[in-house]
Amino acid sequence: MNRLVTVIASLGICSLAAADTITTTIKGTACDLCASAIEQTFKAQPEVKTVDVDLENRIVIIETKHGQTMDDAKIKNLLTNAGYAVVRVVRKKE
User: Fold this and answer.
1) For 43-65, how does the pLDDT look when each residue is reduced to its tens digit (9 = 90+)?
2) How many angstroms separate the CA atoms of 54 and 34, rounded?
3) What is the pLDDT of residues 19-31, one digit of tens each?
4) Total number of domains constituting the chain
């Protein structure tokens, strides 16, 4: 019984772990193909839950899985390697 209580308590703590919503402003995007390439790049990362590219505002919004994050250096590296310049990275904990 004590083990069951411990497992349930642990699960509850894990579900309280925050996720990050990371908004990245970039330069170099122009079309739906750019957006698709960025989405595929980030969806391939294990810590990413969702990614949305707003071409008009040149913003990439990344939501990480609960309890996981993605550091700025990795975000910048992925985008730079894909041919885009990173202007700013803003984080919000949920």
Assistant:
1) 999 999 999 999 999 999 999 99
2) 11
3) 799 999 999 888 8
4) 1
